[in-house]
């Protein structure tokens, strides 16, 4: 059977890449790009990533549906539910998730269709995981946090721990190179992680700590870069997902995990400015600063010294030594799209391999290593090295 897939947000920068990745992995599949308005490029029925545009909108307000909770799909969303029910899988690439919360997930559950999301908001991650029993009762599988971090970083962390761990500590680092041709919405989502307080995994539990851009870990050396660069403290939904997965009986790959990013084109001082005007407390100022950063990044990308690729590195330390797993691709958003597309592809090949409910990236995904191999077809390379 030829699968039918809808990518909500498929006309955006990351969503378009997911559409293209799905079509590359499944050339015979029907892949539609859902959005509120037609794309500006290639005509109303030709999103940038390929596929066909269909009108779709997700409400961001509370509805008076069956359960009536905040952010849930209700009676007014019957049209969306009917649309979703025509597909075998829905990929949620719209955002920001801090605004949408679980509305799209609730619509998928009502429609009885499995979904994959790329959520990277820590608070929303817990709300999505709380849908586990509801999704299970409806026979729906929700695969959450299937982006670059959480998602790809989590897969590398678990695979590294399976071969050489478990580890006492791990450090996740993302190098956003100079070839990030993403829109302002994707940029806003990335910069949303620059908050006054960030979350890490400490002793197996998510912990919120003051952001520290001047401490001993202020700089890092990434595989393939070769020089020390600023590493800005950021939060990640991965800490919450690791904690919640462990509560279900899955092993922790590391007791403690930290998260930092390097943005080419952004001075270290700008991170402090962005933290003072966080998106949660100052949405208008954050939007203006996002536009400024997007312009600075575009100009900085043209500099000859900039690396026109992005790299995700997971560095782990334990009793047997220090090891690094890394993945590199053309862009950060391309890394997100590749992992999401590979996850969707593998899930559609064996949809009954997971029980109904909500699942994050863990060793319970039977095709975890195969998904990483699939990413090679999407121009993403992953490897494990032993540090000297």
Task: Please explain how this structure is put together.
Strands 3-2-1-4-5-6-16 form a seven-stranded parallel beta sheet, sandwiched between helices. Strands 12-13-7-14-15-17 form a six-stranded mixed beta sheet. The protein is globular. It has 388 residues and is α/β, with parallel strands linked by helices. It contains 13 helices and 17 strands. Residues 62-75 have low confidence and may be disordered. The protein has helices spanning 13-25, 78-84, 97-100, 103-111, 122-129, 132-137, 152-164, 184-191, 238-247, 268-276, 283-301, 332-349, 368-374, and strands at 4-8, 30-35, 52-55, 89-92, 114-117, 141-143, 167-176, 197-202, 205-210, 219-221, 228-230, 232-233, 254-263, 310-318, 321-329, 357-359, 381-386.
Describe the secondary-structure layout.
Blueprint: E1 4-8, H1 13-25, E2 30-35, E3 52-55, H2 78-84, E4 89-92, H3 97-100, H4 103-111, E5 114-117, H5 122-129, H6 132-137, E6 141-143, H7 152-164, E7 167-176, H8 184-191, E8 197-202, E9 205-210, E10 219-221, E11 228-230, E12 232-233, H9 238-247, E13 254-263, H10 268-276, H11 283-301, E14 310-318, E15 321-329, H12 332-349, E16 357-359, H13 368-374, E17 381-386
Helix pairs in contact: 1-12, 2-4, 5-9, 8-11, 12-13
């Amino acid at each position: 059977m030829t699968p039918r897939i809808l990518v909500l947000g498929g006309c955006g920068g990351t969503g378009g890449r997911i559409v293209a990745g799905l079509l590359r992995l499944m050339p015979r599949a029907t892949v539609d790009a859902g959005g509120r308005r037609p794309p500006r490029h290639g005509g109303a029925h030709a999103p940038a990533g390929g596929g066909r545009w269909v009108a779709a909108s997700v409400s961001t307000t509370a509805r008076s549906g069956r359960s009536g909770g905040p952010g849930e799909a209700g009676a007014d969303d019957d049209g969306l539910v009917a649309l979703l029910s025509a597909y075998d899988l829905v990929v949620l690439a719209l955002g920001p998730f801090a605004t949408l919360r679980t509305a799209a997930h609730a619509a998928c559950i009502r429609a009885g269709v499995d979904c994959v999301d790329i959520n990277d908001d820590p608070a929303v991650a817990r709300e999505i995981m709380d849908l586990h029993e509801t999704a299970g009762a409806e026979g729906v599988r929700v695969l959450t946090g299937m982006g670059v971090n959480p998602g790809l970083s989590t897969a590398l962390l678990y695979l590294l721990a399976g071969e050489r761990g478990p580890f006492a500590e791990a450090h996740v680092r993302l190098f956003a190179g100079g070839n990030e041709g993403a829109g302002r919405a994707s940029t806003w989502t990335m910069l949303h992680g620059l908050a006054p307080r960030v979350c890490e995994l400490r002793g197996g539990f998510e912990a919120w700590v003051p952001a520290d851009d001047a401490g001993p870990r202020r700089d890092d050396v990434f595989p393939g870069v070769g020089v020390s660069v600023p590493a800005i403290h950021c939060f990640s939904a991965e800490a919450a997902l690791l904690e919640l997965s462990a509560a279900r009986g899955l092993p922790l790959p590391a007791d403690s995990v930290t998260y930092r990013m390097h943005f080419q084109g952004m001075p270290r001082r700008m991170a402090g400015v962005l933290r003072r005007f966080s998106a949660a407390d100052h949405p208008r100022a954050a939007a203006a600063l996002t536009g400024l950063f997007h312009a600075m990044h575009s100009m900085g990308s043209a500099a000859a010294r900039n690396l026109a690729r992005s790299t995700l590195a997971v560095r782990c330390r334990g009793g047997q030594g220090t090891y690094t797993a890394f993945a590199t691709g053309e862009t950060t958003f391309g890394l997100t799209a590749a992992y999401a597309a590979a996850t969707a592809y593998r899930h559609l090949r064996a949809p009954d391999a997971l029980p109904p409910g909500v699942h994050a990236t863990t060793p319970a995904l039977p095709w975890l290593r195969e998904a990483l191999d699939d990413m090679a077809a999407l121009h993403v390379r992953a490897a494990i090295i032993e540090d000297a």
